[in-house]
Amino acid sequence: MENRAEGKGTCLIAGCGYTGTRLARRRLGAGPVLALVRRAVSAEVLIRQGIPAVAADVDAGIPLLALPRELASVIYLAPPAGAGTEDLRLARFLQALGPARPQVVVYFSTTGVYGDTRGAAVDEASPVAPREDRSRQRWEAEGQVAAWCGARGVRPVILRVPAIYGPHRLPLDRLRRSEPVLRDGDSGPGNRIHVDDLVAACLAALDRPVSGAFNLTDGAPESMAAFTIRVAKLAGLPAPRRVSWAEAQSVMSPGVLAFLRESRLVTSRRMQELGWTPEYGNPDDGIRASLVEMGWGNSSSAGR
Ligand SMILES: NC(=O)c1ccc[n+]([C@@H]2O[C@H](COP(=O)([O-])OP(=O)(O)OC[C@H]3O[C@@H](n4cnc5c(N)ncnc54)[C@H](OP(=O)(O)O)[C@@H]3O)[C@@H](O)[C@H]2O)c1
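Above: query sequence and NAP SMILES. Below: predicted holo structure tokens.
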């Protein structure tokens, strides 16, 4: 049963990009929403879709007038900025909130905080061991959110998110460029979630009186290679070439290699507290729905 833990005031979606936009559309019916983005052009795109939006670069400081006086909830989806192990962007954002006391802050973290477990399972009780600075920033950011909320009696929710896929977030360009994938045996399990399931989990976190960290996953872990091959099949594109780890060093980008170097199997022991189960527990369904939304196969999708 839904328990509306959010009070009156605005739902501020800070970092309203791919996921935030779909979230805003779903939240609009429940009360006022304000999207915060960095660039004016992003705000214009949102406003054209009927989503109230302001553009302000958190790194440069948010003008006080840009923020609503009364906040019911804050959902923070902006990625950490720059190098280092601290999320200074989030620190600036929390400072800009001043004396605000929303009922809940939802922070989008990543499952990267668990580091590399060589394919072993992790749940919310597993030790955190980030390996890359990007993941260390996330862990540090989780601490900032917990401290900020703790000092104000605000409910903190941390969503640890795996790779997000959905419409316009499928490896179609990589397939069209004939980029190879790691062969079976050289790649560990990867974890994913369809963007609409992520949105539904976030809405559940707003509406239920839960707090703390939640792992999110579609429950269908498979390597990046297996997922890419699945997408190729459903999109009617040629299957990618499989390469060894040794060959991958010379044909894959440093970013992809860093991603592939870590593997873990994300599980959750807290998901049921959200009253949420993924609609796209079968990735074929999630990929098919994404392709349909993109009009894949119609001439209009050819350039995407
Ligand atoms: N993609 C994945 O597979 C994945 C996996 C795990 C976790 N995550 C995390 O989940 C969150 C949501 O992901 P997403 O893919 O939906 O994000 P996204 O589409 O990249 O959107 C990021 C948003 O943050 C805004 N932003 C960035 N810097 C800002 C600044 N200095 N001031 C104000 N706004 C700023 C951007 O505004 P502009 O558009 O105006 O620049 C954009 O609206 C992110 O934190 C992401 O890192 C993603």
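The longest strand covers residues 104-110.
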